[in-house]
Amino acid sequence: MIYMANQMTKESYNKIEQKLDVLRKKRAKISQTIGEAREHGDLKENSAYHAAKEEQGLNEMRIKEFEEKLALAEIVEKSQLGGSDKVRLNSTVKIKEIASGKECTYQVVSEMSDDIFSNEISTDSPLGHALLGCKVGEEVEAEIPAGLVKYKIMSCS
After folding, report:
1. Rounded to an integer, what distance in angstroms lies between the CA atom of residue 70 and that of residue 75?
2. Phi then psi dihedrals of residue 107, to 5 deg
3. Is residue 90 left, alpha or beta, with left meaning phi > 0 and alpha meaning psi from -120 to 50?
């Protein structure tokens, strides 16, 4: 099966739902902050008001982004994603940077599920995209902020 941008595992879908719930709950707090800042008078020079309005705009943008992602999501089971000999959505892959020898292990997740602090890498990231469909032992190149980097796939499960 070829990976499509709107495919995700049930676990990834649930994570996005949780993030969306947090953002929706944050709406009321932001609205309250705007109301309090408005009471302080002249809005032209009211930095608290402008900061709260900016936060509100960013929060609403993220809500819309997550709602659209969930609306277009196609939940797939791990068994539907192809054989385990290739890197695919939900794979855990160990890679080694060829130049430095540094090894890292990541779980390949859908675009809105990635969390660098949990060793998750998005299929839409340069490295995640380069890894998709590759097998253990193959070398891949990814254009990352530091430049073009080559990796070798050490294991995949």
Report:
1. 10
2. -100, 130
3. left
Please compute, for residue 5, the number of CA atoms within 13 A of its CA located in the half-sphere on the CB side.
6
Per-residue CA distances from 64 to 14, 24, 60, 98 (Å): 16, 10, 6, 40
- The fold adopted by the segment(s) 7-75 is Helix Hairpins (1.10.287)
Which residue's structure tokens are 């499960």? 157
Band of residue 154 on the pLDDT scale cut at 50, 70, 90: very high
Q: Look at residue 91 and tell me whether its pLDDT is greater than 60.
A: yes
Which residue, chain included where needed, has tokens 């402008």?
50
**pLDDT confidence bin for 61, thresholds 50/70/90:** very high
- May I ask the CATH architecture of the domain 78-156? Roll (3.10)
Return d(Cα 133, Cα 153) in angstroms, integer.
11
